[in-house]
Every structure is written in C-alpha cells, then in structure tokens.
Specification:
By secondary structure, the protein is α/β, with parallel strands linked by helices. The protein has 20 helices and 22 strands. The strands form five sheets. Strands 14-13-12-11-10-9-16 form a seven-stranded mixed sheet. Helix 12 links the parallel strand 21 and strand 22. The chain is elongated, with a radius of gyration of 30 Å. The chain starts with a strand and ends with a helix.
Length: 643
C-alpha cells in the first residue's frame, strides 16, 4: 500500500527528483525558463536533490552548433540565470551544459544551490558510434581530474568531485553523465568507493525498441551493485527528431529496487525518497564493499533538517510480493529450495523415513508439503513419510480432521497417537493440577509430542522434520525442547505471512481437487497451538490474540532486524503501511511486545537445529544472526516509551 506521512530527514529519507523539461534546441533562454519552472515545482514539493538531463541548457542535439561561440555564451548566461533562481534555497540541483576549459569543450554537469555553483563534473566516456558523434565536438575528461575553472569571476572546482552534506554525514553525492553508465567501468564505481551514497546520471538516451528495458536493468543493477541511490534523468520533448526520438525516461532506484519511474515520452518531475540510512547500513555489513583513496575533490553543501513527505511505497507485507506473478514465483522458488535442502540432508544421513507431527495448521502442512517434494526429488515413496497426529486436550475436530485428510490424500504413513493419558501421567508425576492451565500445562503437551516424534524416528531409522517458522523464532513462540527442537527445520527462515501464501499457492497449483479443498480449509483456520481445551468445539487459544498480529510482527522483523532501523523509524513506517488496518496505539503496543520478546527469547535461537536459508532474513546462530542471549532491550524500549 502507499502511505503518505511525515518522516524527518534524520530518519534517513532524502527526497530526490529527476526532471525532464520541454526544451527548444539551441534556445538557451527558453530552456532556462523551463528549467526554472521545474525547479520551483520541485522546491514546493520539498525536494532535496534535483537532477536534470544532459546538456539540457542548450539541448543535446545541437551537434556542430556547439562550435558556435554564440551558443556557448548563451548557455553561460542561461546557466547563470538558472543558478540565480536557486538563491535562498538549499535544494541541490544539477543541470547539463557545455563548458570550455583550457581551450577544450566539455559536456558537463553543473551542481549548485543557494545561488552558488559548487562544482562542474565533466563527462568521461563520449559515445562515438552508431547515431552518436559526441567526440566530434567534446573532449573526454581524464580520470582523476581535479582542477578549477574561472566562471563568473569565481574559481569553481572542475573534475572528479564528491559533494558532501555537512548536516547529514551519510549523504554524499556523485555525478556521471549518460554513456558513463554504459561503459565497462562507470565513474559511479569510484564515486561510491569514495563513499558517495547517491549517484545522479544526467542523460540524453534516445529511444529504440527495447532500449528502455535495457536502460532500466542498468540503473537498477548499478544501484544494487554499488549499494547506492541512483537518480536518472534523460532528455525528452523538444530535442531534435531529425534522426532520433527522445523519451524523457526518468528513474529513481535504491539498492536494486526501482522506487519511481516515469512513463516514456513525458516531461516533468519523477519524485521519491532514498533511504541513505539503509544504504549506509548495507555497506557497513558487507565487507566486500571496500572504500578506496582515489583522488577526489570534496565539496561541502548544506541541507536544513525538515519534515519530508514520504511518497515511496511502504510494503505492509515486505516478505510477500504484491504482484501476483512475482508472488507465485516466490512461493515456487522457496518450496523448491526447502525441498532441495531436505533431500540433501536425507541423502547425507541415509535415513529411511521422515517423521513429522501434523496438527492441521499452516506450519506443519507446509513442512509436510516440503517432505513430499523432497521425496519426489529422491524418487522415494510417500509411505516413507511417517505423519503423526497427536490429539490432546486442546485439539479440535476441524484441525484433527484436516490433518488426517491431508496425510491420507498425500499417501503418507499416518499414525494417530493420543497423548492425553501420557500427559496426565506426566502431570501426576510432577504434581501439576490438570485444571491449572498455566505454561506448564501447555508446554507439557508440546514436549510430550516432541518425545513421541524423536522416539519414533529412532525406532524407524528416521529424521524428525521441524515445522516452526521464522516469525515464531523471532518471538520465541515455541516450547523450549518441545516444538522448538527437531533434526532439520525446513520452515526456519520462512516468515508466517509467507507460509500462508506458499500453502495457498500449493493448493491452487497442485491439480488435485481434494488436496486443494483441505489445504484451503487449513489456510482459513486461525493460527493456534491448541494447548488449551476448546470452547464448544471451537479453538479457544488464538495465537495472534496473545502475541499480536503476525503481519505486524513480520513487518517489525524485516525493518527492525533485517534493516536495523531504530524503533522510532519502524513505528513511523508501520503507521504508514498499516494506516487503514491498525491504529497507532495498537501498532505501538505490539511493537513493544516484539522487542521484549525478541531480546528475551534469543536463548532459543542460540541452539536451533539446522535449516536452509531461503530469504534475506534468517535467525540461525550459524548464519546471519549472532546475538548474546542475555542482551538487554532497554535502549529500544526506552525510545518506544518516549513516543
């Protein structure tokens, strides 16, 4: 969903825009007016960084008119008018213009704010093939160029520059021009290795069939490879159509994700917000991203902290793609990874059977489907899967029926073991009153079930397949040495919101009406451990009533743990993402619950069984997450209590 709200720049969001003005070729005065209009519009919309196309002051398609002193003088006067229009505004603007330096003509980006030019960045790679003849008029900039140019009575930096925000240390800005991106070693590589977090590309890329797709892949890929924000602004309406047509393609990407993109053959602004806190974190945690000491000029600029309206998409369910086709592919790919991980473990251990407890709930159903797919990979019969239902005090007819139906349809070796008498004997042994529905009452059942599974696995030369998911691990919603333990946890890196969709995907694609029917009923069954006796035959213990909605907790997990956002930022993003679903008080309540449980339950995650990683988040102590079991949540909760 799209959320509109206020996020401070201190939360890392920098509002940026790519602009395509409608110009006239060689009419510098007219073009200056068009550029100033878009500058004014961007300023009103709170834009912090604004990028215009290559040579937009003159028009890219001037060709040999660039030899004319009249055009170059007109471009200079137009640029001075544009820069003057930026007075009393700290919006950082870059426009494309021709510039003579040391007797040679360069294709440049002028960067300015507050009525002052901060620097000129010349283009390095000049296309001189097919329809392009830039080397006819322009000179390529040498690598490592650090000079100055006398411009309007001032000495202005000219060459390789990193523009550094003095008020926001993570915000460093670099520029490349059009073909620079298409070259084997784009300048943006060295710029980001010099710690630039946002790259601007001033472009004049003409349109041919399919070129926009290729261009989009370049921008998205470069932002991912360099862990940066990337603002791409291309020339459009008004350029000469003598031999070419320009589409005004505008894109804003962040670390491989396209935040905003224009339609082709449009003019105007394309706006979004780049999260430089996220980029800085990703670079810190990735030790293959090495900073270098390449020579760059470092030029400072300032931005006043202010409220920024957030327009970028905030996914309420970040683990679940919002596009149907992408969602189906995600589900299919995860199921395949789970099955391959399990099949490898079966081969390695040479186990004869898989042993799995089936409750009639989502997690155990997905784990069973993974077992089925693994056995298919190994050409093993489904009867080698021993499925065990263990009804007890809280089991309802609906879940028991679904569990048995599912196992029978899939052709597994189904065994029904009522553990009620065993649990009662255990309660008698330890002096637990059966009417006392405390944690001992609940966990005694969970541990008895695990004991049954483990002992049958020993008896049948089998492997106990765990069913717990990533969301439960984050919250510690598992009985220690009960359902917390197995010999291989196939769901350990699959969050609850995604478990639901994988089960639904399997139901819709299995091609078996009976299997589809039972899986869809499981899909619609409330999530419950069923450890408390039912009321009138219905589930009396709803997990989400006790620990909170899983859609919220998965959102907190993704933003608070995967991206390490502070609680304040997680809360603000959640308010935007769930503004139509939960009020602020509810979100804050469960966010506090999340942090309390996440910190207090680390001891359970410190001794997890093996399980394959399938996504960007995993809490395995051998993988992505290492945390002391006695770490305190005080700092995080203190910030939340102050909201």
């Amino acid at each position: 969903m799209f959320g509109l709200g206020e996020i401070t720049m201190q939360d890392g969001f920098i509002k940026v825009a790519a602009a395509t003005p409608k110009i006239r070729v060689a009419d510098c005065e007219y073009n200056a007016g068009a550029i100033i209009v878009l500058m004014s519009e961007a300023r009103e919309k709170g834009v912090n960084i604004l990028v215009f196309p290559e040579l937009c002051v003159t028009g890219y398609t001037c060709h040999d008119l660039f030899y004319q002193k009249m055009l170059l003088d007109g471009a200079k006067e137009a640029l001075l008018r544009i820069v003057s229009a930026s007075a009393n505004s700290d919006m950082l603007v870059t426009v494309g213009c021709p510039l003579v330096w040391e007797g040679k003509l360069f294709n440049c980006a002028a960067v300015f704010q507050n009525g002052e030019i901060l620097g000129f960045v010349p283009k390095k790679y000049l296309p001189n093939y097919n329809e392009f003849y830039e080397a006819r008029q322009f000179t390529p900039a040498e690598d490592g160029l650090c000079g100055v140019i006398a411009f309007d009575g001032k000495n202005v930096p000219f060459g390789d520059i990193v523009f550094e925000c003095e008020s926001i240390p993570e915000l460093k800005f670099g520029v490349e021009l059009c073909e620079d991106l298409w070259a084997p070693e784009p300048p943006s590589i060295k710029l980001t290795k010099a710690d630039a977090t946002i790259i601007a590309n001033l472009s004049a890329s003409n349109e041919t069939i399919g070129k926009d797709d290729y261009r989009r892949d370049l921008v998205r890929g470069q932002s991912a490879r360099l862990m940066c924000g990337y603002i791409y602004a291309s020339a459009g309406d008004g350029e000469s159509t003598q031999d070419l047509v320009f589409g005004g393609h505008r894109m804003i990407a962040e670390n491989g994700s396209m935040l905003s993109e224009s339609e082709l053959f449009t003019t105007g602004l394309t706006i979004s917000e780049i999260d430089i806190e996220k980029l800085a974190l990703e670079r810190r945690r990735n030790n293959s991203f090495q900073f270098t000491s390449d020579i760059f000029m470092h030029v400072g600029f300032g931005l006043k902290p202010r409220e920024t309206t957030l327009t970028r998409r905030i996914e309420a369910m970040p683990f679940v793609p919002s596009v149907a086709g992408e969602k189906a592919k995600r589900c299919r790919d995860i199921l395949t990874m789970q099955a391959h991980g399990l099949s490898k473990r079966i081969e390695h251990t040479n186990c004869k059977t898989l042993v799995i407890g089936i409750s009639g709930g989502l997690d155990s159903s997905l784990a069973l489907l993974v077992c089925v797919e693994a056995m298919k990979l190994l050409n093993r019969p489904m009867s080698d899967i021993i499925t065990i239902t263990m009804p007890c005090f809280g089991t309802t007819k609906r879940t028991k029926s679904n569990a048995e139906k599912l196992c029978n349809i899939l052709g597994t070796d189904l065994r029904v073991i009522d553990i009620s008498d065993s649990v009662r004997q255990h309660f008698k042994d330890i002096g637990q009153d059966e009417s006392d529905h405390s944690v001992t009452y609940e966990n005694g059942q969970a541990r008895e079930r695990t004991q049954v599974l483990m002992d049958i696995a020993n008896k049948e030369n089998g492997m106990v397949v765990g069913t717990g998911d990533l969301s439960e691990l984050a919250l510690g919603w598992a009985t220690y040495n009960g359902d917390h333990m197995s010999m291989y946890g196939v769901n350990s890196s699959v969050p609850k919101t995604l478990v639901r969709h994988i089960v639904y995907y399997y139901a819709e694609t299995c091609g078996d009406d009976a299997l589809r029917e039972v899986l869809l009923d499981i899909f619609n069954t409330p999530v419950s451990p069923e450890l408390i006796p039912p009321e009138n035959g219905e589930i009396s213990q709803i997990t989400e009533d006790l620990v909170g909605p899983y859609e919220l907790h998965d959102f907190f997990l993704y933003n608070g743990i995967r991206w390490a956002f502070p609680p304040r930022k997680v809360f603000r993003l959640a308010k935007l993402a769930f503004k139509d679903s939960f009020d602020d008080e509810t979100i804050l309540k469960w966010l506090k619950t999340f942090y309390r449980r996440f910190f207090s339950q680390q001891f359970k995650r410190s001794c997890l069984p093996d399980g394959v990683k399938v996504g960007s988040v995993t809490l395995s102590p051998r993988g992505d997450w290492r945390m002391p079991s006695d770490a305190q949540a005080a700092l995080w909760l203190e910030e939340l209590n102050g909201l």
